[in-house]
Structure formats: structure tokens, C-alpha cells
Amino acid sequence: MLVKNKFITLFLLIPTLLLTHGCSDDKKDSKDITQPPVEQPTEPPTETPTEPPTETPTEPPTETPTEPAPIGGIAECDENISLTTNVSFECRVNVAQFDQPALINAPEGLVMNTGSGVLRWTPMEHQVTSSQNIVVEIKDINDQSLTINIEVELGQLDSQGLYISPLGDDSIADGSPTNPFQTLKKAWQFSRDNNVPLHVYMRGGDYIDVFDETPYVRIADMEGTPDNWLFIRAHGNEFATIKSQDDAITLSKVKYLEIEGLTISGNAPQITPEEVAQKWWYEGDDRVYRAIGIWNLTSDHIRIKNNVIHDFPGAAIASNGGDYLYIENNIIYGSGYWSTSGVHGIANSKPGGTDSALNPDDEKIIIRSNLIFSSASLIPSSDFLYRGEVHFVLDEGNGVHLQNTEGNLFGHATVEDNLIAHNGKAGLGINTIENVTIKNNSFYGNGLVPVETQVSSLGGELLIQSSTAKTVSNNLFQSLGETAAIWDYNGGMVNVGANFANINESNQLHQSESVTLVDNVFTDPANNDFTPSSQVDSSFGITSATHDEIMHKLFVHNIEIAEIAYTIDYEYMKQKTLEVFSIWPDNTVHPVDPDKPVDYETVIIKAVANDGEKYDYTRATRDHFPNPPPSN
Per DSSP, which regions of 449-597 are E strands? Predict the structure, then answer.
């Protein structure tokens, strides 16, 4: 049977270039065969006056126009494009020509990033039917539009699995490509109830999760195998985006699961510091201020790769009670701001599983080839219920955090080939954990959130607390302000090998002899060039392939590496202290369990006064702040 092609017409006006070419071959004359010459008497030659040569004006060479080089490695969309099913395609529209462009009437899965102008689509079998036109417009608020014609041919067949789409309908769907579910939660329930492997493909588009005190999806009690991993991934290269006001994906007692190719977006930009301060005394499960992107609970063999996870008020990725965790090739930013529990961009605060003691020489945590930036803790932890006192300081907020206080992780961890920049307390913090390999990372401008006082920070690029790293080598550190490249609270700099750091006072005071100090570690970090400068060994820091891949993703997703969005200084901390003090409870009602009394009169908050010293404040003395409380 003859399968007709389907033409998809996108109304775009894209200039075309007419390239003309010409070439010719010169033919050589054949040799003449002549008789020997006959000698004849010769007349003396008559001189004929010659005319001066006439100069023929020459035409200037015609320059053949060349196509502009692709921006971000992605060519501009042509007027006519031929595609085949299940083969990923992307092209770029010049969005600078539009005012608030939008993609209208797009076929299922086709999405444009309106910031970068990149269109992505991986058409499926059912999207090649009969020859009919689907009219799609890229149109702005001024009614300006552009066109393109896309021919789709039947090529590769659809993959087996469960499909979800923003255009799906959970009430009638069966998860097939032509009848997809609308939500990831429904796909998981179908998989659980029908004993079908959780192999989920998410079509391009936005998946909106409104706040209801429950995660977008909670996957529990499900296992893959080493040869057949479960997965949740974007279909082809399509832009599949989860927008959550709550925890997005939580995993409980799950084995062998991969999450790949998604954008997972939180609600931190919609939260203000003022409203968070009002919630500081409430220790309940108010997830809107603590929401986490991916939360791993007692799960192992979890692979999180090639995602963009950003703007969660809690951690972007948190893992408690799990191991064999692989976090690779992700972009993570803007997270951890508003949780009063004290979190980090990537938080591994309680690693280890039920069988973690097995195979103690295995790599149990690998964090590799990620970009982690602008994650910080901007509100002090409110742990008064457990300790009776609070140090009102920003003592959390690392880009990456590894901690093994409870001693449940038996194994090795590796942090390598990551670009870690502009995070709050430190780029990487390790605490009470051993056997950590830290190599070929590039650290820039971390640790600028004040931790203890109004004048200095105790952060840095790398913090080592109650830990001995297996090795710290081939890293690049460029610290700013008063922060240091490496802060080893143990003081020994044990197993710190060859690294490069920039020259500043802190780095000169806190360094190992094997750390070489130079003026500039990176080529041009202000313009996102984090390649090694001419002063350092080119084999140090992230690989050139990782650097190029990160820059490509930044372009595609229209992301800019930037510092945290707030200036954190003493005035900021003083205002947060005043706000929390002003609503100090005067009752004895426990914020979570009404049957468990709390004596708020005896709670102590240790805060920094305007003389730079830290004092104990109680409810009775709170009104003296920001001055010191009266002496006893």
C-alpha cells in the first residue's frame, strides 16, 4: 500500500539565498604533424607600426553570498523541510524580529522555546496520515507571522511504551501514541495496576501541577532490573516541561529508574522573602515553601540525566536513604532559596540504603558533567522544635552537598567534570563523609552569602568538614571577595593534589602547597568562557566537550549563568530577624502536633546585633534587636 506524505505548513517568511556556481574545463589542442620546412628566400621584414594596447576594463569579482553560521550550533529554519517519523529535528527562528512570539495550532509535540527561538519536534507514525495541510503560525502581538513547509515521511516506527501529552485525556486514555495520558501520575497508576513496565515518553508541551499538598507524581514500590531500567523521558528531543508548585517527582522504594530529557520548573520566583519570614515559626508540611524538584526517598539505582531543573524553593534534587545515585549532564539553578529546613542545590544529606553495607568499594554516588549555579539558602533554618535554640545564620545552601552524619553510606562517591558557580555557601560541601573523589571540576564565584557576620563569609568554592577526601585534584578554583578556594575545617588539606586557584588573600592563607596560584583561572568567565586560561594546564577543570555541551544547552533553553537574585548582606539579615521576631508566638501550641506543647518563652535565637557580635535573644528580649540584649 502506498503511504502518502503529510505536509505541515508553518507560516514563516524566511529569506533564502540563491547560490550560483559556474565552472568550465579548458580543452588542450591536439598536436599538429608538419612536413620539414622548405627554405625560401626571405624579404627583409617590413615594420608595421603598432597601436598601443587597448585596456579592457575588468568587472570586479562577484561575491557569492554565503549562509550565516548557525547560532548555538542550530541552523535557521529553512522554508521547506523534510522530516521522517521518530527522527528528532530542530531549527531556529530569529525571535528578535517578534514581540512576544507564540506558536499557534502546532501539531502535538512541536514546541518552540520563545526565548531562544529553537523549535523541536520528533513526529510520530500517526502524524503521517493523508496529504492535508496543518496550518501553524508563529505570530506575535502585532500580528507579524512567518511560514515554513515541513514534509513528514514515514520512517522509524514508534517505540513501545506509555505516552503522555498535554493534549491527552486521563479519563479515556490507554497510554498509546494516539490516545496518550495527560498526567504522569495516571501513567504510573496504569503501570502499577496492569503490571506494565514504567516506560514513559512525554510529548513536548507544558504539564501544569497546581498546589494541592501532593507531588505531581509519587512513584513507589516499583522495580526495574539492570537489563531493563524503568524510565521517564522526553519523547525524542521534544521540550517536555513539568511546572510544579509542589514537589515534582518523588521516589519511594524504587529501583533502576532513569529520568531523562525533561525540564522541571518550580515556583520560587513567585515567592517573596516577606511571606517566607511569616511562615518561619510554622514547621508543618507547607510544601509550597519547601517544594523539591526530584526527591529520592529510600530508592537506589536512580539515574537523573540531561534535565533542566530550576527554581524550586527547596532542593532541585534531594536524596535521603538511597544510594547508587547517578546525576549527570543536568543544568540545575535557582533552587534552595526559601526552605526553612536548610537545603542545597543537590542535597545528599542522608545517603545510604537498606543494603548499603554491601559492596563497600562500589561508587554509590556519581555527580558528573553538570552545571550547578545560583542555588542558595536565603532564610535561616527553623529547627527550634528539635534543639530549643536557633543560630539565625545562613549555614546551608551549597551547590552540591554530601553528608554522612548517620553513617549509613558504605561506599565511594565521585564529583567530577562539573561547572559550579555563584552558589550561596559553597560550590561543593562535604561533611562527615569519606572516600570522595573530587576532580576536574570548575568552581567560580561561590560562597558569597554571609554565613556568620555582616562583614565576611565563611563560604568558599570547596568546604571540607569532618571529612577526608579520597583525592582533590585537577580542579580549577576562582573565588571572589573574601572567600577561599578550599576551606578545610580539619586544617590538614589531606589528599589535596594538583589544582589551580586565583590569587587573593584568602587563597594565600588557606591552600595546599600543591595548589598553584595564578592571576586568572578561566579565560573570560564574565562572558561564559570557562575554558582554562593560558596560565593553567589545559587538562584541568571541565573537559572541552562538557563546556561546549553546557553552552549549547544554555542557548537552546535561553538560560543565563547569573548570581543569586538577592543581595545578602547584614541589612538583609537584620530585616529577616526583625520580621521573625515580630511574630514570635506567645502561646504553647505546637505548630504540627497540638497535643505536644511548646514553650516559646524559653526558645533562644542567636542573632548578630549591630555591633557585629552574636547574642542570645528570647521572646522577652527580642524588642532590643538590632541592639544587644540587656546583660543578665
Answer: 460-465, 471-473, 476-478, 484-488, 499-502, 515-518, 522-524, 529-532
